[in-house]
Amino acid sequence: MTFPADAGWGNLPFGNWDPVIYSKEMIDFFRRVSVADEITNNKYEGEISGGGSSVIILKEPELAVSDYARGTEVIPQDINDEALTLVIDQAKYVAFNIDDIERKMSHVDFFGKMVAQTAYALKNNYDSNILTYMADNGTVSATVLGSNGSPVTIGFDAADTYTPLDLFAAGSRLLNENDVPFENRFAVVTPAFIEYLYKEDSKLIETSVTGDRESEIRLTKQPTTKIIHGFKLYMSNNLTASAGGSTRVLFGHTSAVATANALTKTEQVRNPKSFGDMYRGLLVFGRKIIRPEALFTANVTLS
């Protein structure tokens, strides 16, 4: 491209070029926050040896209480050692190639950028996989939290089933009825649901509720450490809608789902089909709901 010249100007007609300068800095895309590791139990990870492996997890037996009168024959019960199996059956990979000429002549370190993105891509896919698995398999209490075919409505009108905070209260009741411990409870919501929590009609951001003017909920920090009806609040774009299109909310305890990464491997190798390097990353993992009574999926419609 040449600079424009006045009509009739003939000096250096082909030599006056506008140089195009390429910045060495790239515009990084926004990265989603991962929450899966925060809301699952990964203490079995050290017992996994590789893909296809499995860990047998035994549940604590429950004892029955029987009536007793003088002379009653005491009959011991058989202890039921229920076993659950955590199987490593998920594998994801990322791979890319950079030609030697591209790597040498490029003004931008594409290789370094893509190496950094490999770890994020695998972690984000893992997070999405775990959250979708939890939402798809969480206990559905249709009459309380709504079902895929009949979601509850969330809003501030009299016709709505719940306000946003009232839904949290309902989720808390379900866990209370199942004797789920108060410590380490969590709730995962979508950005759309967060918007409802912060609407003017919601009491969530009032200082009478948060206790101060600088709380993490008021400042929308992620994740928050403020407890809402016993739940630590997380927001995620990886929490997908239901098959029927309902917004989903997860209520649970960190012991409900076991996760384990069996293999996280990255390597750089020469591409045998070209002059260049191939970089690839592999993630092998498993997930299993081991306490279904401690994980609930709410299906809601934001009115």
Tell me what you see in this structure.
This protein is α+β, with helices and mostly antiparallel strands and 303 residues long. The chain is built from seven helices and eleven strands. It has helices spanning 36-39, 100-105, 110-137, 142-145, 164-177, 191-197, 207-210; strands at 54-58, 83-87, 90-99, 152-154, 185-189, 227-228, 231-235, 247-253, 257-270, 276-289, 295-302. The strands form three sheets. A six-stranded mixed β-sheet has the order 4-11-8-5-7-6. A three-stranded antiparallel β-sheet has the order 3-10-9. It has a two-stranded antiparallel sheet with strand order 1-2. The radius of gyration is 28 Å and the shape is flat. Residues 207-221 have low confidence and may be disordered.
Task: Give the rounded overall mean pLDDT.
Answer: 82
Secondary-structure element sequence?
HEEEHHHEHEHHEEEEEE
The helicity comes to: 10-25%
Share of residues in strands? 25-35%
Q: What is the count of β-strands?
A: 11
Shape: flat
Largest sheet: 6 strands, mixed
Tally of contiguous helical segments: 7
Gap between N and C termini: 54 Å
Low-confidence stretches are 207-221
| Strand adjacency order, main sheet | 4-11-8-5-7-6
Radius of gyration: 28 Å
Structural class: alpha+beta
